[in-house]
Design goal:
heterodimer, A: 139 residues, mainly alpha, 4 helices, 67% helix, B: 320 residues, alpha+beta, two-stranded antiparallel sheet, 9 helices, 10 strands, 29% helix, globular
């Protein structure tokens, strides 16, 4: 439940980093005006990323102390875990990039943005598939 | 302090601006590399008490950057939905009284009442080149970048013209030209709307160890450019000498442009609006994100501690 809501809001606030919600009238829908406010969606994306990291820390520690480790994860569980790890790494690089006094090359910024977006699309696709096909995270 | 900064300082800034190839590096290494390459940013001090409004800087800027100006293809693609505005300045290139895609610097005419007398001031206005520029940091495509020497610029080959940089800029500086750029090759009717343009501090001249055109052309030596620490000291000294006021030192967390005025900025009256930036106090727009970034470091540790606590509790219960 917490993971699902986190995924929903982190995806919404992530897509809101692109100027699309106002253009396509989505921000005109009552209650969704915040989607066109870039500083709000930026902060929300960071907050949701923190929640996702906390959930990740919780899940990884549970796997570690259970003694089973990665062997308890299904193929699709591992796939989603790997994509989330990629999102965390690329996202963390962009968070560092956003701090004052940090300068990355044009190409590095461009590659990180596209990687983050690509992994997000992959996670959405795999999550949709595992939801419909009832593929669990763990054995 | 002379108007001319040393060639060495320029070259140092320009070489560092060659960038950090962080794309394939792990996070820590990338951050280290970025920090190691950091040099003192170049700051411009603009003493508006010296400006006579001759517009030499405006025309020098246009001449120096003419090759970067957009040459849009017409007719423009039909935009969907219809609310997407076409912004075309290509037939109004001669406009010099505001910021446009063809005019990256303009003279703002201000007045103020000092001791019962009306005072006229002219202010060269362009991108402030923020210390932590929201236009660069929040660009969703990576079309904007900041170099180690403090300048921020938009890559016209990558920009899709979504105008987010303008929306997040405290002074609404970047200006859009429709009908040019990458969007024409992707989904011209459905995504993007041209390219955003703004002052890039004549990076092509900085790379050669030269000064930005506006500074070079000014007959009144209104602007001085140099390393941040020296320029901050200079700005404070000059302000003290004239009992003046500073703008840009703290705005948006600090910018690489510092204005000195003989009258308080909140007493200056001038036309603001589209392409005509204000001079009001501006809070650090990126500060909240930087604070939340700290929470991100703690979050996985908190999650791990929660899981470990739960595990420890269970073990304890099993033993009792």
């Amino acid at each position: 439940m917490i993971y699902g809501l986190t995924l929903l809001f982190i995806t919404l606030s992530g897509f809101a980093q692109m100027p699309i919600f106002k253009r396509y009238y989505i921000a005109d829908i009552p209650g969704l005006g915040w989607l066109a406010k870039f500083y709000i969606t930026h902060s929300l994306h960071y907050i949701m990323a923190s929640v996702l990291l906390a959930l990740g820390g919780y899940a990884v520690t549970r796997l570690a102390v259970s003694g089973k480790g990665l062997s308890s994860l299904t193929f699709w569980g591992r796939a989603k875990g790997a994509i989330i790890l990629g999102l965390v790494i690329s996202g963390a690089i962009m968070v560092v990039r956003n701090l004052p006094g940090i300068h990355f090359s044009h190409m590095a910024i461009y590659v990180m943005n596209l990687t983050h977006l690509g992994l997000c699309m992959a996670l959405l696709a795999v999550s949709a598939f595992t939801l419909v096909a009832r593929k669990p995270w763990m054995h | 302090m002379s108007k001319t900064m040393s060639r060495r300082a320029f070259l140092k800034g320009s070489l560092s601006a060659a960038g950090v190839a962080a794309g394939s590096l792990p996070l820590a290494k990338a951050a280290q590399a970025a920090a190691a390459d950091a040099v003192e940013p170049l700051v411009t001090v603009i003493d508006i008490s010296k400006c006579v409004g001759c517009e030499e800087c405006v025309y020098a800027c246009r001449e120096s950057n003419a090759e970067k100006f957009p040459e849009p293809e017409k007719p423009f693609p039909r935009m969907y939905p219809d609310r997407v505005p076409v912004q075309d300045w290509s037939d109004r290139r001669e406009v010099t009284d505001r910021l446009t895609p063809y005019n990256w610097l303009f003279i703002q005419h201000a007045s103020a009442e000092v001791d019962g007398e009306e005072m006229e001031l002219t202010i060269p206005r362009r991108c402030m080149h923020c210390n932590n520029p929201p236009c660069v940091k929040l660009c969703p495509w990576g079309a904007a970048k900041q170099e180690a020497n403090g300048l921020s610029r938009i890559d016209s080959d990558i920009c899709l013209g979504g105008s987010k940089c303008k929306a997040v800029c405290p002074w609404d500086v970047p200006q859009r030209q429709t009908g040019v750029g990458l969007y024409l090759d992707i989904l011209p009717s459905l995504a993007g709307n041209g390219v955003m343009y703004k002052c890039d501090r004549c990076y092509q001249k900085l790379e050669k160890g030269e000064q930005p055109a506006c500074i070079e052309a000014c007959p009144e030596e209104v602007q001085t450019i140099g390393p941040r620490s020296e320029m901050v000291e200079l700005a404070k000294k000059r302000a003290k000498e004239m009992n003046g006021y500073l703008y840009g030192l703290a705005e948006n967390g600090g910018t690489n442009t510092i204005y000195i005025s003989p009258v308080p900025f909140d007493r200056l009256t001038f036309e603001t609006g589209k392409g005509k930036p204000h001079m009001k106090p501006v809070k650090d727009k990126m500060a909240q994100g930087s604070n939340l970034a700290r929470a991100m470091v703690i979050a996985p540790i908190a999650g791990a501690a929660a899981a470990f606590g739960k595990y420890y509790k269970r073990i304890k219960e099993d033993r009792s």
